[in-house]
């Protein structure tokens, strides 16, 4: 019986599709219009921030994951390690912004209303009051050198609320594997410069008027059990 010639990529002269599907990420819709957070955050900032900055992190995250897939298929360990910083930066940018959009809401839809339920109690217990927490996050956010984020997180191991900052696009989990982000505030200049210029403390002072605690409360309820 004649053997069939072995069909390889070379003999077929084309690139066979990857056998396993590669997960890619896409830009999540905002749950409000770009101008809905005005006058606290301008529509121009929101549109650029979402359509350009967040989209760029996603595009570059997907590109890095594709390169990782190729490097893994080739068994190229150097290339795998080389891609880690691009994955952390762009993947972190996607994770952080996806949380940030959920932490905001127009004033008419509950933005700025203090947290209720168990998260409200936990904030009073750990920080004394919401005002003290806001002051602490504003101070730490203003003091952060360069670009980054200020977070309210839940330490699942110690069962306590924590305030942390992360540099660049590092997600909160880089500060500890048990940390769950509840509320993240973007203190990159792209988040405020067009409106607040170099005065980051004014942006931080105002942003609380459009902070929506529903998402934080839901995550807290789920993760603190
Ligand atoms: Fe940002």
From TrEMBL:
Keyword hit for Metal-binding: yes
Residue span, Manganese/iron superoxide dismutase N-terminal domain: 24-105
SUPFAM superfamilies given in the database record: Fe,Mn superoxide dismutase (SOD), C-terminal domain (SSF54719), Fe,Mn superoxide dismutase (SOD), N-terminal domain (SSF46609)
Record: residues binding Mn(2+): 49, 97, 186, 190
A single cellular component GO annotation: mitochondrial matrix
Sorted UniProt keywords: Manganese, Metal-binding, Mitochondrion, Oxidoreductase
PANTHER family reported in the protein's UniProt record: SUPEROXIDE DISMUTASE 2 (PTHR11404), SUPEROXIDE DISMUTASE [MN], MITOCHONDRIAL (PTHR11404:SF6)
Subunit structure: Homotetramer.
Protein family per UniProt: Belongs to the iron/manganese superoxide dismutase family.
Cited function: Destroys superoxide anion radicals which are normally produced within the cells and which are toxic to biological systems. Destroys radicals which are normally produced within the cells and which are toxic to biological systems.
Protein name: Superoxide dismutase
Native source organism of the sequence: Morella rubra (Chinese bayberry)
């Amino acid at each position: 019986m004649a053997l069939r010639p072995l069909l390889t990529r070379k003999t077929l002269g084309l690139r066979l599709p990857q056998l396993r599907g590669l997960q890619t990420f896409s830009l999540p819709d905002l749950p409000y219009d770009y101008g809905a957070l005005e006058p606290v955050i301008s529509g121009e900032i929101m549109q650029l921030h979402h359509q350009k900055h967040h989209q760029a992190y996603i595009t570059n995250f997907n590109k890095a994951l594709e390169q990782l897939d190729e490097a893994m298929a080739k068994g190229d360990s150097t290339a795998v390690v080389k891609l880690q910083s691009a994955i952390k930066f762009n993947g972190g940018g996607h994770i952080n912004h996806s949380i940030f959009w959920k932490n905001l809401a127009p004033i008419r839809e509950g933005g700025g209303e203090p947290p209720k339920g168990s998260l409200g109690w936990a904030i009073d217990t750990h920080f004394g009051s919401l005002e003290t927490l806001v002051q602490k996050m504003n101070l730490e956010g203003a003091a952060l050198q360069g670009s980054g984020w200020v977070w309210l997180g839940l330490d699942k191991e110690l069962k306590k609320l924590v305030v942390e900052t992360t540099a660049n696009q590092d997600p909160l989990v880089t500060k500890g594997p048990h940390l769950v982000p509840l509320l993240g505030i973007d203190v990159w200049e792209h988040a405020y410069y067009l409106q607040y210029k170099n005065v980051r403390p004014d942006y931080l002072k105002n942003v609380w008027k459009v902070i929506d605690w529903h998402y934080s409360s839901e995550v807290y309820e789920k993760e603190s059990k």
